[in-house]
Amino acid sequence: xxxxxxxxxxxxxxxxxxxxxxxxxxxxxxxxxxxxxxxxxxxxxxxxxxxxxxxxxxxxxxxxxxxxxxxxxxxxxxxxxxxxxxxxxxxxxxxxxxxxxxxxxxxxxxxxxxxxxxxxxxxxxxxxxxxxxxxxxxxxxxxxxxxxxxxxxxxxxxxxxxxxxxxxxxxxxxxxxxxxxxxxxxxxxxxxxxxxxxxxxxxxxxxxxxxxxxxxxxxxxxxxxxxxxxxxxxxxxxxxxxxxxxxxxxxxxxxxxxxxxxxxxxxxxx
Length: 270
Hints:
- The protein is α+β, with helices and mostly antiparallel strands.
- It has one domain: Aminopeptidase (3-Layer(aba) Sandwich).
- It has helices at residues 23-39, 87-92, 98-107, 128-144, 158-163, 203-215, 245-250, and strands at 5-6, 9-18, 58-64, 71-79, 111-119, 148-153, 167-168, 177-179, 186-192, 217-224, 227-234.
- Strands 1, 2, 3, 4, 5, 6, 7, 8, 9, 10 and 11 form an eleven-stranded mixed beta sheet that branches.
- A hairpin with a 6-residue loop joins strand 3 (58-64) and strand 4.
- It starts with a strand and ends in a 20-residue tail after the last helix.
């Protein structure tokens, strides 16, 4: 997966789409994400890893070559409702069922979860698997109709998540924390209370999120720790024919509950 360079910097495309509209790219996302998880020792995953492909409430952000042949990273937004619980519910509900009522309370006005964030080694260090996908996900959230977002964060991503406006949710787990996806890894429940205005984000991140939202389509030279990358954004989500947030919310028909058929030793790919 050789990167294309322009003036010494990588050039990639970051586009957003509804999962059910592009199953082929979804499969490439899954393959890449699985490879990254395996490389850090997470080898046992549940078959639910690909169910989001068919969930009308799932949206994907993919980082790829300009010709679409190579995939370098991605993230997803799952809207509360649809045909599945949120990944955070699937991951932590067996440990603390209060997560189901918490999500449902936010779902009434439109909530979702930023999840599945990853990048390949080829593009490591350029911010794709951290800040730039995270900003892009928040930028498109109001376009879907969301007011808030959840996230389940590893320790090394908490400061980044707070910088874009999230806060720790203390009402579930052990003051918001769970051992996930392995007993030696701690995950923290985070909530972004205002995806439209992101008032609690840092000035730099807030300005970048709002600029992405205003631009939607076009190139930007992004910089992280003096490393530059040229990202061609397509966050327009123009193919949302038939998207009805209230219908998606109503598909849940109340708070979710733990799927007792899941093996607690399995791991759900977030």
